[in-house]
Amino acid sequence: MSLNAKSTIEAGKAILGIEFGSTRIKAILIDQDNKPIAQGSHEWENQLVDGLWTYSIEAIWNGVQNCYADLRANVKKQYDTDIEILAAIGISAMMHGYMAFNDKQEILVPFRTWRNTNTAQAAAELSELFVYNIPLRWSISHLYQAILNREEHVGNIDFLTTLAGYIHWQITGNKVLGIGDASGMLPIDPETKDYNADMVAKFNELVAPKGYGWKLLDILPKVLLAGENAGFLTEEGAKRLDISGHLKPGIPVCPPEGDAGTGMVATNAVKVHTGNVSAGTSSFSMIVLEKDLSKPYEMIDMVTTPDGSPVAMVHCNNCTSDLNAWVGLFREYQELLGIPVDMNEIYGKLYNNALNGNADCGGLIAYNYFSGEPVTGLSEGRPLFVRSANDKFNLANFMRSHLYASVGVLKIGNDILFKEEKVKVDRITGHGGLFKTKGVGQRILAAAINSPISVMETAGEGGAWGIALLGSYLVNNNENMTLADYLDNSVFGGDAGIEVFPLPEDVEGFNTYIENYRTCLAIEEAAVKYKK
Asked: pLDDT over 70 for what percent of the chain?
């Protein structure tokens, strides 16, 4: 038992970060050195209700209360003490989506999450109106689609926010949002660090004939930067988090953020010319830019860091699911032979053997599309492996082709940034399941985007740690450092992790692979059309 951790908790100097992920709510407690000292979690799943993905209000509060209770129990078990006062609290959650409330704080329709793709007409019309790529999952797309659908509730909207914004509002009384999460509601002007005024005016003009009793800024949360005052935990808020009644009100709460922003913080990737890649079930890359791109691209979303720098985001629906399914097939074969199974060993052997394959995978191609992939224009997907008789079909090339496929779509999006927009990047940090086998996922990703890739031991701590660090930045930044400097100096201490540089032959091989991949997309389209 750490006496330092116990005394930190008892002195009220620990900081709490809570993140609502798609399948898990996680709480993390950090000390004054920004190191995790206790954790709690709660598993949950979204529900498909009337054709839309949602989580009920009851599930949200039941989830966070169970998560906090799990954290309390772990603190009691590890340190034989209880949490009563904290230095700060931070709330993070999956971005985008649609939570609309009336003036009685009642939700008007079930929470519509980022997974919903029923907003195609709205997103297309707004992208044209704003001359800016507006993704399907953004809050403004959901709002305008509800207007196009003539949904009755729209006229009664008093407040529109994200999941993180909702929790923060309920525990502090403040209708605010961190700039990173806000950038997934409506585009942000990099100069004013606020919603884009021209787009606000265009939207108000567009919907004026409907005669609603609100203008857009009336119903959106106020935008805040990292480190700004976002309010304090109320007495009611304390009871809603901790049903045991031990947690005291009055604790500062940092601006609520989205999972993309907390991922940037957790990987020390908020400085211009840095970026991070998250690669698990889905994947996305975030590259911090000096300025906006020269024009909008349908496959690149523009968001911001928690301190307001522009970020180019390439989001891919598919990453390791198909790869994992093939590894599962090899596990079955091993079981059939009566050989004891160690999944870490299977992954390690197969991944490392892939590096013995041809740099272009010997002509083999894999499409990992469990679901549709907007970047390549497919609304549905079919996992597919393609080869011709003359290709070099062996285990190393087979595995390499599936590793390439896991980041292939990510490469297509990032090629625009690096080749067409000439974006410069000094360091990209990788995190997620693809990088669990040391060195392999790193080398594949380095080849894909022709950039050095770092992996840090702390990257696995995730967004709950990231939002706890933003809480730390709020209350412990005594020297008024920028967020990037605070992370460099007070959190990471110059640790850039283990860096892998791209090998020229890998880069050339991946470029050949991706040319074949693009050419053969018609085969994937045919599979979607004919294989039901």
From this structure: 99
- Encoded tokens for 435: 């990088």
pLDDT at 459 over 70: no
* Rounded Cα gap, residues 72 and 49, in angstroms: 33
Angle, helices 395-415/321-336, rounded to nearest 10 degrees: 170
Residues 312, 511: Cα–Cα separation, whole Å: 22
Cα 320 from Cα 87, distance rounded (Å): 38
Cα 86 to chain centroid, rounded:
26
Q: Which two tokens stand for residue 519?
A: 């050419």
Count CB neighbours of 161 within 10 A.
26
pLDDT tens by residue, 227-280: 999 999 999 999 999 999 999 999 999 999 999 999 999 999 999 999 999 888
CATH class of this structure's domain 96-161+186-219: alpha beta
CB 100 within 8 A of CB 157: yes
pLDDT in tens, 128-138: 999 999 999 99
Q: If DSSP states are collapsed to H, E and C, what string results for 106-155?
A: CECCCCECCCCCCCHHHHHHHHHHHCCCCCCCCHHHHHHHHHHCCCHHHH
> Residues near 124 by Cβ (< 8 Å), separated by ≥ 6?
none
Cα–Cα distance, 92 to 467 (Å, whole number): 6
pLDDT band at 2 (very low <50, low <70, confident <90, very high): low
Q: How far is CA 136 from CA 101, 133, 160, 406, 485, in A?
A: 21, 10, 17, 23, 34
d(CA 298, CA 374): 9
3-state secondary structure 170-223: HHHCCCEEEHHHHCCCCCEECCCCEECHHHHHHHHHHHHHHCCCCCHHHHCCEE
How far, in Å, CA of 368 to CA of 409, rounded?
10
CATH 3.30.420.40 spans which residues of the chain?
Answer: 96-161+186-219, 269-455+502-532
- CATH-assigned architecture of domain 269-455+502-532: 2-Layer Sandwich (3.30)
Residue 75, Cα to own-chain centre: how many angstroms?
A: 28
Helix (H, G, I), strand (E, B) or coil at 253: strand
**Residues 350/334, Cβ–Cβ less than 8 Å:** no
Handedness of CA 228, 230, 234, 238 (dihedral sign): negative
Q: Please state, rounded to an integer, the average pLDDT across all residues of the chain.
A: 94
